[in-house]
UniProtKB/TrEMBL annotation:
Pathways involved: Amino-acid biosynthesis; L-methionine biosynthesis via de novo pathway; L-homoserine from L-aspartate: step 1/3; Amino-acid biosynthesis; L-lysine biosynthesis via DAP pathway; (S)-tetrahydrodipicolinate from L-aspartate: step 1/4; Amino-acid biosynthesis; L-threonine biosynthesis; L-threonine from L-aspartate: step 1/5
Keywords: Amino-acid biosynthesis, ATP-binding, Kinase, Nucleotide-binding, Transferase
Superkingdom field: Bacteria
Protein name: Aspartokinase
């Protein structure tokens, strides 16, 4: 690895949730990356993306939104004032908020997803401006660099274009000092903003790291590292000191929300290590994710809520055939419903997906002519990786299992 390969640090919503958190970020940068070329990728402050989703939804429905917009302004103003002191010169975030105000006023009833991206991306713009100012670092608008197609709300990255653009723009800036940019956000060739999917800032960090051949990526979290489960649900979760890309990809895919599932592939492709470290205890070792062999890990528990179990039966009681499956998969793709688990019997096919009322209704419309479709929502999908008898007993006890599946290493079930 070349001595001048940059480090990429990603700070999520919790690590930039207010002025004190941003000062803690500054301390981490100054004590752990001094003198190193450093790209800082930040998410929106705290729950700002949720607030922007609600704001956009109100504007799209033609409802008043002055109060939540005022709250968003006051929240960022309070952080800016605490960082810069009262009476400080206006920061660039104020113009950004004015731009948001104008764009909200222009929202029209068409093209929900496209307009969503133009508006909901403001959280990262605002946060990155405050963080750049606090660090005295360069601010970079990532939208002209992270090139995606026009798949709104889940932009697909154009890797060759992004690599070319990032490699042309970033190294001269990094040579001058730290650079702060946005996670979660990209842009089309035509200059429109896209987003990469909720919680997609980890993925942004990986995109930049891939393009820059970074030395490593560190994602700073409110937990000690990658644990065997979400400690908020399983307080006895243990930290994995070291884990392979493959194990981590599977955990993220099954729903371990600590890492966005798309993050690992670009890093694994270029052999770039990913560290998960605690912004509460920056000196602690955290977790190192890289290309390694390790002994069997403690069973990992993963819970994915908001699930929907759909079952399809052909109306003429015909067996579920390849032709039927082709139609069902085509409709699922068209409705943009992702399959988390699937199973078939002779005349019925079941899939577990993330629930979205709008998408499920679209699916029903597409398939109602050919299939009898039933669904249950408000379900939970549990996965145990590296399961054993005690871990299965612990999780299944007292639960009504609607669907269950196991491979040699993974046990999954859907329940109410
Ligand atoms: N296996 C796991 N290991 C560690 N944390 C986990 C795991 N699964 C879920 N989490 C949750 O992920 C949270 C951190 O991720 P997230 O909230 O997305 O961070 P941020 O938005 O600040 O980047 C933790 O607070 C924890 O509750
Ligand atoms: N702010 C975006 C993107 C993101 O990744 O956030 P976080 O790093 O806080 O999960 C979201 O909430 O979806």
């Amino acid at each position: 690895m070349a001595a001048h390969s940059p480090l990429v640090y990603k700070f999520g919503g919790a690590s930039v949730k207010d002025a004190a958190a941003i000062l803690n970020l500054k301390h981490i940068v100054e004590t752990t990356a001094a003198g190193r070329p450093l790209l800082v990728v930040v998410s929106a402050m705290g729950k700002t993306t949720n607030a922007l989703e609600e704001l956009f939804d109100l504007a799209h429905r033609g409802q008043p939104y002055d109060a939540p917009l005022g709250a968003l302004h006051d929240f960022h103003a309070a952080a800016a004032e605490a960082l810069a002191g009262p009476g400080a010169a206006p920061g660039p975030w104020q113009q950004t908020l004015q731009d948001l105000r104008e764009q909200l006023a222009d929202v029209n009833p068409d093209h929900y997803d496209r307009q969503y991206d133009q508006l909901v991306s403001y959280g990262e713009l605002l946060a990155s401006q405050l963080v750049a100012q606090a660090l005295g670092a360069q601010w970079l608008d990532c939208r002209p660099l992270v090139r995606t197609d026009r798949t709104w709300r889940e932009g697909r990255v154009d890797w060759p274009a992004t690599e070319r653009l990032v490699r042309a723009a970033l190294p001269p800036l990094l040579a001058q000092g730290p650079v702060v940019t946005q996670g979660f956000v990209g842009g089309t060739a035509g200059g429109l903003t896209t987003t990469l999917g909720r919680e997609g800032s980890d993925y942004s960090a990986a995109i930049f790291a891939y393009c820059l051949h970074a030395e490593s990526v560190t994602i700073w979290k409110d937990v000690a590292g990658l644990l065997s489960a979400d400690p908020k649900i399983f307080p006895d979760a243990v930290r994995y000191p070291e884990i392979s890309y493959q194990e981590t990809i599977e955990m993220a895919y099954y729903g371990a929300s600590v890492i966005h599932p798309k993050t690992l592939k670009p890093l694994a492709e270029r052999g770039i290590p990913l560290r998960v470290r605690s912004f509460v205890d920056p000196g602690a070792p955290g977790t190192l994710i890289h290309d390694c062999q390790h002994p069997a890990l403690a069973p990992a528990f993963i819970r994915k809520t908001g699930q929907c179990l759909l079952s399809f039966e052909s109306k003429d009681f015909a067996f579920i055939s390849e032709e039927n499956l082709e139609v069902i998969f085509g409709a699922l793709a068209q409705a943009r419903l992702k399959i988390n688990l699937m199973q078939n019997s002779a005349i019925s096919f079941s899939v577990c997906t993330d629930f979205s009322e709008r998408r499920v209704q679209l699916l029903l419309g597409l398939l109602a002519g050919q299939f009898r479709v039933h669904y249950n929502d408000d379900l939970t999908l549990f996965t145990i990786k590296n399961y054993d008898a005690p871990s299965v007993a612990r999780l299944t006890e007292g639960r009504e299992l609607l669907l269950e599946q196991r491979t040699r290493s993974t046990f999954q079930f859907v329940c109410r």
